Structure formats: structure tokens, C-alpha cells
Amino acid sequence: MAAASSTKLRCLYASSVKKVHPPSLTGLSRHYATANSDSSTTPSLADKAPTRRRSTTFQDKLNAGPSFADFVSGDDAPLSPSEAYKFETVMAGPAGRKKEYTRLPSWLKTPIPDSQNFKRIKNDLRGLNLHTVCEEARCPNISDCWGGSDKSSATATIMLMGDTCTRGCRFCSVKTSRTPGPLDPHEPENTAEALSRWGLGYVVLTNVDRDDLPDGGAHHVAETVMKIKQKKSSILVECLTGDFKGDLDMVAVLARSGLDVYAHNVETVEALTPQVRDRRATFQQSLRTLEAAKRANPSLITKTSMMLGFGETESQMWDALRQLRASDVDVVTFGQYMRPTKRHMAVHEYVTPDKFELWKQRALDMGFLYCASGPLVRSSYKAGEAFIENVLKKRRSGSGAADGMPSRTGSGLVVDEITK
């Protein structure tokens, strides 16, 4: 009975509700709050005529500029050396006190280091508490030297005895102090360990001057060389070191430690040495250092480096090269001096690449075994290292000249042959 009455109520409710059909979309028009109340419809977007976009200043300049054919026509004559090497200047400074500055030439600009290999080498160095002259001296080649395709093709110049020097040369950005911290007794072992990880065939060690030590740190550097040779006897070691306060006995200690290349930089010509280097360093003392290294170990390759751009004259350069050859120096490099900070010596001249090439040829004609010369060349330059490595390997294999040294006559031919 109850079920029948429930069914009847549902039927009555269904019949009383009218079916509501959704409105047709075709008869609808959209109204906006901002539209006029008297307009019942709004024109569609399709009914509006397209408006022409206003021309911009950039577009006008682009249309009036050179076409693609102007770039590939090849009608323009190449720039002359004077035009190509013309320096750009810029006015900078506060209003009313602007000064003219010379922009860095294009041939001295290098990329910012960001490769994975660069980061790996840096992590290895920090983990072993080691320093490099690449970082401390703000070398512009750090991206190239550390950023090789693998660690075996990279070059990092390890700086021994800390990161603080007792001398204050006007061109150098390494920190200075009269009383640096004590030497790290684990540094020789850590350095040998780092270099064995990288699997290098040629390594460069350098060091700060430590005039506060009785031996100038000579025994510390010599111990590092011996540790490296113990781990891998085939590795070639170059030491870019100081003059040890003129103590030639300490020079002999390092020269007999097992290293292959003894490098000591004269930095500049003799006439400018008092203005460029620390007062305790002299041009003649540097020559005596290189001569003593060769006397202590005649099989050593001796090497030095000079920076251009201090204001040196051509006659002063010739005089410096003659004295270096008289001291039986084998390798010389030339590079552009670049001012690290405003506190350092100002650049007198940006030397052009053509002039660097000229001095390279002059050095080879004088009988130097090898010369690396260019705006970005530094003492520890891997192109030079590759050449010296080939020379030393030829000596070991006995395929060199009778005395183990490639002939100095026809130096250009010797360079080409060994580079091949």
C-alpha cells in the first residue's frame, strides 16, 4: 500500500515539472560592463579591419642599413696593420672630472673560465691546500691552461711555500709580508699526490720568495721535486724559482734535485729593473743565478722570461738578449705586461702581435733554443712546455745532437723539426 502511494507521488511530481531545454548558442550575444546600454550587440573580432603596426626606430635603421650582399661581396680591402691595431679610448669618471682611458685591445681579451675540468682541478688544489701562481698572479691564460679536454692536457703551475711573498715587485699581484707563515711540511707530499692524480707528463713548480728563511726555501723546493720523481720518474719537472738572495749554493741544491728545467725570470730590461722589481732583485743577480744552475747541472735547460710594455727601448732589449745568450740561457719568452690593479705599475704600451713575432725571430736568430712570444705568453706557457718536453724526450732517447742538445745553428729549422 505504501509502495503504491510512493510510486504515484513520483509520477505526479514528474508530470508537474516542465522540461527546460538549454538555450541555443546561435542566438546569444556577449555583453560587457563597459558597453553602451543602448547597443544590443557588439561586433565580432572578425568584423574589425586589421590595423597596421607602427614602424619603430630600430626597424627604420635596419631597413636603411647594409644588406646581406654587402657582407659577402668581398669588395672591401683588408684593414692595414695600423688600422687593425688602433686602440680604442673611452671617457670615464664623475661628471666634470672624466679621464680618457685606453680600452684593452681585442688580442688581450680571454674567456671567463667555466669548464668542468677547470672546476675539478680547482677542487683538487683546495682539497690538498695547494696554491697556484695561475690564481695568485691573476694569469689571463687560466681558462686555456686549466680548461683542457682532460686533466692530462691541462697545465697548472703549483706555487710552493704558501701564497705570501717577502718581496714587493711593482708588477706582481701576489700578497706580500715581511713575516709570512711557516712552511707546510706536508706540501711536498701533497704536491706529488696532486700531480700523480692528474697524470701529467710535464709539470711546472714555482714559489714565492722567502727571504725570511735561512736557505730561502731551496731545500723545501728540492724535496718537492724528489717526491714527484719518486712517484713517477718519467715526469718532467720545471722549477720557476727565485734567486735565493744571491746564495749560489742554494741554487746548486735545487739544480741537483732532479729537475729538468731551471727557470728564473729577469722580468724586464736591466735599465728598468729598479723601477719594476723589488730592490733586492737585480738583473745581474738573475744572470748569476742562471749561470750557477747551468754550472751545477750542465744537462739542465735554463729558461727566463721578459715582459714588454714597461717602456723599454729597442736598444735595451737587444742588450738584455745579448747578456742572456752570454750566460748560456737556452729558452726565453716574451709576454705583455698587464696591470693587475690600480695599485700596480701602469702599462706604458700595449705591444702589437706583429712586434712580438719580430722579437721571437730575433731571439731564434741569436741562437736561443726556443722562444715563445705573444701578448698572452707567460713564463709557464704550455706551448713552450710542449716544445721543451719534446727536446728532453729526444735527449733521453739519444736521438738529439751529439751533446744531447739540438744544434743552435739554424734555430728556426730546429724549432720546426722538434715541434713536428
TrEMBL record:
Binds 2 [4Fe-4S] clusters per subunit. One cluster is coordinated with 3 cysteines and an exchangeable S-adenosyl-L-methionine. Residues 34-44 have a biased composition (Polar residues). [4Fe-4S] cluster 2 binds at C165, C169, C172. It catalyses: [[Fe-S] cluster scaffold protein carrying a second [4Fe-4S](2+) cluster] + N(6)-octanoyl-L-lysyl-[protein] + 2 oxidized [2Fe-2S]-[ferredoxin] + 2 S-adenosyl-L-methionine + 4 H(+) = [[Fe-S] cluster scaffold protein] + N(6)-[(R)-dihydrolipoyl]-L-lysyl-[protein] + 4 Fe(3+) + 2 hydrogen sulfide + 2 5'-deoxyadenosine + 2 L-methionine + 2 reduced [2Fe-2S]-[ferredoxin]. Pathway: Protein modification; protein lipoylation via endogenous pathway; protein N(6)-(lipoyl)lysine from octanoyl-[acyl-carrier-protein]: step 2/2. It is an enzyme of class 2 (transferase). CDD domains: Radical_SAM (cd01335). [4Fe-4S] cluster 1 binds at C134, C139, C145, S380. Residues 150-369 form the Radical SAM core domain. The keyword Transit peptide applies. Keywords: 4Fe-4S, Iron, Iron-sulfur, Metal-binding, Mitochondrion, S-adenosyl-L-methionine, Transferase, Transit peptide. SUPFAM superfamilies: Radical SAM enzymes. The keyword Transmembrane does not apply. GO terms for molecular function: 4 iron, 4 sulfur cluster binding; lipoate synthase activity; metal ion binding. Residues 24-53 are annotated as: Disordered. Belongs to the radical SAM superfamily. Lipoyl synthase family. HAMAP family: Lipoyl_synth. PANTHER family: LIPOYL SYNTHASE (PTHR10949), LIPOYL SYNTHASE, MITOCHONDRIAL (PTHR10949:SF0). This is Lipoyl synthase, mitochondrial.
